[in-house]
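Design a sequence for this backbone.
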């Protein structure tokens, strides 16, 4: 049981809100030492894990780029452009992104992300569509729109990625099932995931259009007034 001490270290570290990377690193080293693994071997294992998964940290490179784009008005321009599209609504913008995000995940394309796409681009577009349609909206509805845009990224990524045979989730599922003596291949998991990805596109789109109706009912008088003035 002492070999599970790494889990305790991680729990305590997270409760105390210590540096995440340091906590995980210490937990790994302590677990290795308790298990009788030589320290040089522990360092070798950690180094190999970092090299094998270094692509996971590539997104960090995009953060300064996104920051510079926001500094020079990316959010404002996105809202302005979508605001000029009279037919645009929160639901249509969000549903369109859901389809694109899910299809991209199904083909293994690294399109999307809360930091890279949602915050600087999709959210301002949805808010711009709402303000163009209804004028000023209440702060509570701004929060609802934020929630919808956060949800659409999760929908598309989570349900779309397993339709790609080389996705990490697919390989994990295959590995677990084979350990349980089930004969299964990555292609089988990907095929089984395609209907789920299609279903989430339909269900998500219905959800986003439902919020269009709610917003229309709530701000309906204002929307009709704007149309009459045009």
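Sequence:
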């Amino acid at each position: 049981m002492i070999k599970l001490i790494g889990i305790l270290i991680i729990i305590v570290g997270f409760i105390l809100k210590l540096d995440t990377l340091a906590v995980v690193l210490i937990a790994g080293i302590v677990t290795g030492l308790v298990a009788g693994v030589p320290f040089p071997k522990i360092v070798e294992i950690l180094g190999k894990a970092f090299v094998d998964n270094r692509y996971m940290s590539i997104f960090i490179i995009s953060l300064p780029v996104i920051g510079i784009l926001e500094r020079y008005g990316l959010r404002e321009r996105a809202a302005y452009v979508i605001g000029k599209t009279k037919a645009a609504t929160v639901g249509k913008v969000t549903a369109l992104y859901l389809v694109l995000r899910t299809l991209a995940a199904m083909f293994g394309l690294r399109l999307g992300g809360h930091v890279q796409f949602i915050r600087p681009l999709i959210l301002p577009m949805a808010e711009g569509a709402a303000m163009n349609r209804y004028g000023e909206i209440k702060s509570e509805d701004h929060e609802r729109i934020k929630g919808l845009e956060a949800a659409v990224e999760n929908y598309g990524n989570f349900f779309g990625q397993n339709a790609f045979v080389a996705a990490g989730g697919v390989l994990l599922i295959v590995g677990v099932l084979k350990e349980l003596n089930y004969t299964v291949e990555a292609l089988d998991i990907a095929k089984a995931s395609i209907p789920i990805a299609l279903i989430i596109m339909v269900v998500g789109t219905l959800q986003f259009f439902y919020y269009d109706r709610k917003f229309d009912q709530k701000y309906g008088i204002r929307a009709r007034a704007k149309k009459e003035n045009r």
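The chain has two domains: 1-55, 71-227.
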